[in-house]
Design goal:
heterodimer, A: about 230 residues, mainly alpha, MetI-like fold, 11 helices, globular, B: about 220 residues, alpha/beta, six-stranded mixed β-sheet, four-stranded antiparallel β-sheet, 7 helices, 10 strands, binds adenosine-5'-triphosphate, binds magnesium ion
């Protein structure tokens, strides 16, 4: 019990004093997940819109595949990326293994199916009359698609928040490709895993508290966005 | 601009809805299109507003002696107001501004024309209200204002008074009457109300067995 209380009080002191190691890790976490989310949005939103609005052969297959990839086990993603990026792997020449870039790639791989699938369902939930209305008013194909995306904006924002929450909390993939190098590739989740292992609970707990707080903020934002989206949809 | 429907045919899943619809519509006149449920009125409007292709035949447009190509610029000179409006999840103003903004119109022009169109349908005082909070009569009028803001040469109205009360019906009828006297827009509307068709239209048409006939 003593150990626990002591660890908690130390953890809070680290947070309150903005310990540079702690803040460095938090900043890197936010950066890695932030970049991953941006890339995943650039890829996943158009893909989701395409799946939602265009008819093509194998569309159902594509949707099922994306939904399956949503539940991709992170360690498996980590393993595959490791094999790709390791020195002897096909992408080994890029020298990305054990770098923040590798971690961004790993989180992007995890986030793309989430963003795609959730954007797809957000876009599917837009009343088809919206597309028709845009068209009757003289919209081009692109403008029509943008009108639908604008209509789905709250759902899309929810999708992005959900993906961000998911990759922030993830540990399996980035641990494998990031390697947990102090001051270089250590992010919140990997540090928690490592420090707990070593018995250094203060830093682990401090990061755990921050991670929970971020997760809380993401969920609060998610709730807010959903509520706002609900107000005028009847 | 004139509209010439020439031998328009449309099938859905092997069932022929429009068999052979031909009619020449003059600029600036008001037409009322009647016929029982499912006879193909809305289908005819969608084809003539270039939203859907007929299986054979054409919807042709001419400016004097010049035939017009069915491209984007022609599509932007005509507008269809759907039976169910499909308002965008935003304000009344932005709904009415949509057609102009996708045409790349300037802010001042948009503001002027949107206000004019909303005043025309009696929604000038609801400009900042959220469009999804309008009543169904107001929603229908917003649909009309949204279409009129782009100053179409042909306005298609699909059952503009089908789901609105007496008061809104009168407002919408007076709008159509006004367009008829202004004589700047061709109006082709569908309705199930015989008296309304007689009141508003220069010409009443009926779709029966897949063909258009004058009443
Ligand atoms: N996209 C479609 N796919 C299949 N069938 C369709 C489609 N659109 C219309 N139809 C069919 O074509 C027929 C004509 O429909 P349309 O909506 O044009 O009739 P309408 O005259 O407007 O009827 P109402 O008075 O009820 O509005 C109907 O039998 C309808 O089921
Ligand atoms: Mg109809």
């Amino acid at each position: 019990m003593d150990l626990f209380l002591q660890a908690i009080s130390h953890a809070f002191s680290l947070i309150v004093h903005l310990d540079p190691v702690l803040t460095g890790i938090i900043v890197l976490s936010l950066k890695v997940s932030g970049y991953a989310l941006i890339i995943a949005t650039v890829l996943g939103l158009p893909a989701g819109a395409f799946l939602g609005l265009k008819r093509f052969p194998a569309r159902d297959l594509a949707i099922s595949t994306i939904n399956t990839f949503m539940g991709l086990p992170p360690v498996v993603v980590g393993l595959f990326l490791y094999l790709l990026l390791s020195r002897k792997g096909p992408l080994g020449f890029m020298g990305l293994l054990y770098s923040p870039s590798a971690m961004i790639i790993a989180q992007t791989v995890l986030a793309v199916p989430i963003v795609t699938a959730l954007c797809h369902s957000a876009i599917m939930s837009v009343d088809p009359i919206i597309r028709q209305a845009a068209r009757t008013l003289g919209a081009t194909d692109t403008q029509e698609t943008l009108a639908v995306i604008r209509e789905a904006r709250y759902g899309i924002l929810s999708a992005l928040l959900a993906a961000f929450g998911r990759v922030m909390a993830e540990v399996g993939a980035i641990l494998i490709v990031g390697g947990n190098i102090a001051g270089y590739t250590r992010v919140m989740t990997t540090t928690i895993a490592l420090e707990t292992d070593k018995g250094n609970f203060e830093l682990a707990l401090a990061l755990g508290i921050i991670l929970l707080a971020i997760s809380f903020l993401v969920n609060a934002a998610l709730h807010f966005v959903r509520k706002k989206g609900m107000v005028h949809t009847s | 601009m004139r509209l010439i429907a020439r031998h328009i045919r449309k099938d859905y899943g092997g069932r022929t809805v429009l068999k052979d619809c031909s009619y020449e519509f003059d600029a600036h006149a008001v037409y009322a299109l009647m016929g029982p449920n499912g006879c193909g009125k809305s289908t005819f409007l969608r084809i003539c507003s270039l939203l859907e292709r007929p299986d054979s035949g054409d919807a042709l447009f001419s400016d004097g002696a010049t035939m017009l190509l069915p491209d984007l610029s022609l599509r932007r000179r005509i507008t269809l107001v759907l039976a169910r409006t499909g308002v965008f999840n935003t304000t009344v103003y932005r709904n009415a501004a949509y057609g102009l903004s996708i045409r790349g119109a300037g802010k001042a022009e948009i503001a002027r024309k949107v206000k004019e169109a909303l005043n025309f349908v009696g929604l000038g005082h609801k400009i900042d209200q959220h469009a999804r909070t309008l009543s169904s009569g107001e929603t229908q009028r917003l649909g009309i204002a949204r279409a009129l803001a782009v100053e179409p040469e042909i306005l298609f109205l699909d059952e503009p008074t089908a789901s609105v009360d007496q008061e809104n019906t009168e407002i919408i009828e007076s709008l159509i009457m006004k367009m008829r006297t202004d004589g700047k827009t061709m109006v082709i509307m569908t309705t199930h109300d015989r008296d309304q068709a007689d009141r508003l239209a220069d010409q009443v048409l009926v779709i029966r067995d897949g063909s258009i006939t004058r009443h």
